[in-house]
Predict the structure.
Amino acid sequence: MGNRKYLIGVFLILISAAYLIYSSLQTGTEYFLTVEELLARKDEVAGRKIRVSGAVIGDTIFYDPENLVVRFTIAHVPGDLKEVEAQGGMATVLAEAVRDPDRPRIEVVYHGVKPDLLRNEAQAIVTGTLGEDGVFYADELLLKCPTKYEAASPEASSGQ
């Protein structure tokens, strides 16, 4: 009889631990989309916290230092690493995304200090929600400078 109570206790502890792990994973889940995917699924993802990646278009950067508001536009960059490599690497893909006016684009608004790395052709990874007005309101902003990728490209290392 005592062995049965022990097994039931262990079972309940395991079930409780599994539930806690599951619930913490659910609340921390964020969808990662490209700009093209975001625009195609905007009704489906409206109101959800999502993460989007794209190339910063330098001419669109606006910073209001009084209100700490940063506005800029990002252009679609493929999410598949094999596709990025086939197109010449990330530095090339970012540059082409910014130059191509036909690429899907989305405006981003971020409240905070303007990051030093916010510049033309930087890779932006923004986390937030898509507003009903079609603007992406970012809570978090991660930027990767395009020069980070130039060193990794074959042309840059060969001196061309």
